[in-house]
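Why should sequence recovery work at all? Because a backbone constrains its sequence more than one might expect. Tight turns favour small or flexible residues, buried strands favour hydrophobic ones, and helices have their own preferences. The token representation captures these environments compactly. In the example below, the structure is given first.
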């Protein structure tokens, strides 16, 4: 998708602090971190939001990628949070499907 920010990150057209790539997924550091570990996991193909996701294997791959990433980042044991914002009420600001992987501090509930 030509004007999509995260498609450009996936294509290397916009610099990002990439931490893991593979299995059609890319993980990079969030530019405005909300926790000591705050990574974004995106599929390298364009999907606008969870509402548009048609391929369950992509969703499964995102979750297992985030789970493995948490292990590699050393936050799995203490715990972490995976967040998937969808559309305006969900707080989604970039219309390319992504998971937030947050860890390194205790999380609070409920979310804002
Ligand atoms: P969301 O609000 O769920 O759509 O999340 C979008 C996230 O992308 C926010 O947490 C932003 O801080 C992050 N973000 C926006 N632009 C960039 C960028 N160029 N590189 C890394 N993270 C970004
Ligand atoms: Zn995109």
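From this structural description, the recovered sequence reads:
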């Amino acid at each position: 998708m030509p004007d999509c920010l995260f498609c450009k990150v996936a294509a290397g057209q916009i610099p990002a602090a990439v931490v893991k790539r593979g299995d059609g997924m890319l993980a990079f550091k969030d530019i405005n971190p909300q926790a000591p570990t705050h990574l974004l996991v995106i599929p390298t193909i364009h999907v606008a939001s969870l509402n548009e996701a048609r391929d369950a294997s992509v969703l499964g791959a995102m979750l297992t990628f985030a789970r493995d990433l948490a292990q590699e980042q050393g936050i799995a044991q203490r715990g972490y949070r995976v967040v998937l914002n969808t559309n305006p009420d969900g707080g989604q600001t970039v219309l390319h499907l992504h998971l937030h992987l947050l860890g390194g501090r205790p999380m609070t509930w409920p979310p804002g």
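A few observations help interpret the result. The mean pLDDT is 97.
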